[in-house]
Amino acid sequence: MTKQIMVRISGAILVAAAFAVLGLLTLSLIRFIAGEPEPLPRLPAIDENPVPVALSANPEPIEPAPVAQTVSDSPFVVKRILQIDEPFVHGYYKWDDADVPDGEIVVTVDLKAESISVFRDGYEIGAAVIKFGDALKPTPTGVFPITQKSKDHISNIYDVPMPYMLRLTNDGIAIHAAEVKWGYGTRGCIGVPEEFARLLFEQVKLGDRVIVTNGKRLGLGEEIVAG
């Protein structure tokens, strides 16, 4: 009796399974006829919020991206350092701009080395020993645009001549001609030999940058930046 019951249950299960399979086949057939596609498995998303792209029947040709300048083409990279064979002492300067192309002027001052350099288009055209601020008023470091030029300037603070003055700050810091001697300082200004001051004055224009550092030395290929 028990065996007959088990056979009947197994038969019923098989019939139910057959009806289920038949139902799935029928549903797939209906979806196929109606044109409803089966969902595809989701691929990993690359961009959940893509930027829409406008399509055109006659698209314009894409312009190639501009090629970045190489280091050697930049006016703010050292392309030449003046050869100085003489003793680099107080009062000494050198200037050589022969065959140097026109270009932007950048002036660098290194207080630790007590020197000033003038670069045109990345070529050093002038260098000199300087005097600078003493302990009472040290020369500030940073990047300063030249805001005023005055060939025969007289200091309105100290009432002394400041020939070929190039103003850097509103509180009186400037580059100007001075007697450059060892052990002498200034009240924050950068003093250079008079002939060097004249040559520099003729080269620069308002807005040209003067970079004052304390121990930043430059070599060939290095960027002329504050550091």
Describe it.
- This protein is of the alpha+beta class.
- The protein folds into 2 domains: 1-37; 72-213, L,D-transpeptidase catalytic domain-like (Beta Barrel).
- The chain is 19% helix and 23% strand.
- A hairpin with a 6-residue loop joins strand 6 (148-154) and strand 7 (161-167).
- The model is unreliable at 1-10 and 24-73 (pLDDT under 50).
Topology, element by element:
Elements: H1 2-34, E1 93-95, E2 105-110, E3 115-120, E4 123-129, E5 142-145, E6 148-154, E7 161-167, E8 174-177, E9 190-192, H2 194-203, E10 209-213
Parallel strand pairs: 2-10, 8-9
Antiparallel strand pairs: 1-4, 2-3, 3-4, 5-10, 6-7, 7-8
Give me some keywords for this one.
2 domains, 19% helix, 227 residues
Summary of the model, kept short:
The protein is of the alpha+beta class. The protein is built from 2 helices and 10 strands; from the N terminus they run αβββββββββαβ.
Output the CATH topology of the largest domain. L,D-transpeptidase catalytic domain-like
Order of helices and strands: HEEEEEEEEEHE
Measured by DSSP, the beta-strand proportion falls in 15-25%
Low-confidence stretches: 1-10, 24-73
- The geometry reads as globular
Q: What is the tally of helical segments? A: 2
Q: Helix fraction?
A: 10-25%
Structural class by helix and strand composition? alpha+beta
